User: What shape does this take?
Amino acid sequence: MFDFLDSGQYDLLGAFWVTVQLTLYSAVGSLIWGTLLAGMRVSPVPLMRAFGTAYVNLVRNTPLTVVLVACSLGLGQTLQITLGGEDFESIGFRLAVLGLIAYTSTFVCEALRSGINTVPVGQAEAARALGLSFFQVLRLIVLPQAFRSVVAPLANVLIALTKNTTVAAAIGVAEASALMKTMIENESSALFAVFAVFAFGFVVLTLPTGLLLGWVSKRVAVKR
Assistant: This one.
C-alpha cells in the first residue's frame, strides 16, 4: 500500500523540510511585524493607529491565496523584486515567506492587542507618571505581560501558519502540498495512502507545537 515511498522517486522529507522552513521564517517575521502593528494600533499617534487598523482589516480579510499570488505576480514578475534570490525556486520561496508574514502578522497583532487589553490601565498610568514615554511603557511594562497572556492564542496562529504554508504551492514553491499533488497524479491507485502520509506529516508538525506551547502558556501565565 505504501510501496511508492520506497521507490526513491519522491523526496518526502525534503518537501516537509521546505514546509518547516516556510513556517519558521514566516513565524519569526510575523511575530516581529505583528508586534509592531499591535504597537501602532494602541499608539497615541492618530496616523499610526489609522495605518495599523487599515492594514489589519484589509489584509486579514483578503484570502491568503490572493496575497501570495499578488506577491508573486506584483512584486516578483511585474516589479522584478527578487529579495536576493538567484533562481525561480529561491525567489518563489522568499516571496512566499513575505506573503505569509504579511498575512499572518495581522492575526498576531490582534492576539497581542487582546493581551495588551488585559494589562491593568493603572500600571501604564503609573509608568507614565514616572516619566516613561509611551514606547518605554509598551516595551517595559505592557508587552512583557501581554505576551505571557497570549501564548495559547499565538500557538493557534502558529499551527494555522503551518497549515497555511500549503497555499505556497500556488506560486510554485515545492513544499509538502505540491509534492502531494504530484503523488496524487502519479499514484492514483493509492490515494488513501498518499492522503494518510501527508495528514500524518502535518500532525507530526503541529501536535507537538500545540502541546509544548500549551505547557508554556500555563507556566508563564500572569497571576492576577
Remarks:
- The chain is about 75% helix and 0% strand.
